[in-house]
Write the structure tokens for this entry.
Amino acid sequence: MKIRRSNRLVDMTRYLLDHPRSLVSLKFFGERYDSAKSSISEDLGIVKHTFQTWGQGRLETIPGASGGAILTPFYSEENASVAIDSLVERVNDDSRLLPGGYVYLSDLIGQPEVLRQIGKLIATQYVDTDIDVIMTVETKGIPIAQSVAMYMNKPFVIVRNSSHITEGPTVSVNYVSGSVQRIKKMELSRRTLSAGANVLVVDDFMKGGGTINGMKSLIKEFDANLVGITVFAEGRPVNGQRLVDDCTSLIKVETKDGADKKITAQAGSFMENVFGKKTEN
């Protein structure tokens, strides 16, 4: 039974969104909708134009017998700016301030809409970067890594503070916490990361950068390659010094503790690092 074009377009778009950065052959769509390749090509042209017009990604078509279509979701500069502003507005709430200058973000990271924004923003930054795996540390960074992995169609690995018997053999490193200046340990299963792999590190919040610095050391232990670091939010380090200087943040948070506690959230370094657009503070 032949499928109407309107139905084909809806299902085709849904399928491409469910399989981002994956090559889908014209033959697959032709058999799925019982349609000629010429009709499928026209449909893909409509989908391509729509994504381009709305700044939500790009659809590449590859000619030839082994060709097909690849959808890469990402934000245009305008859409990324809107998403960043939305995140800033959500975080800019004095009731989120915790002792020690930390900021409560768990409720935001638990919201699917926010996670989709964070994941797509980070995927936008590395849209043309060869990445094999996304790395984060337990526990609050896990939802962010999952969202990024979904948009990039790549696996993610979780660095743990203590070993689990189900992880099998592990590699561990000691690192100095940037916020409390205390030596800690983190571990990663030997089976989760291969030598030479290109690793993207993501996390929820960074102050001194000790945890991220530990993950950088762990990546070296595996003979893998660090290709980028992005965090949802960054705060001011306790001692004024940061152990990591090559990290991108979606938002930046300034906190004032004590009786007159206050949070001031603003756009981080994302827009400048990705689009070369400096943020006006």
Notes: The CA atoms of residues 148 and 170 lie 24 Å apart. The longest strand covers residues 225-235. The first helix runs from residue 5 to 18. The mean pLDDT is 91.
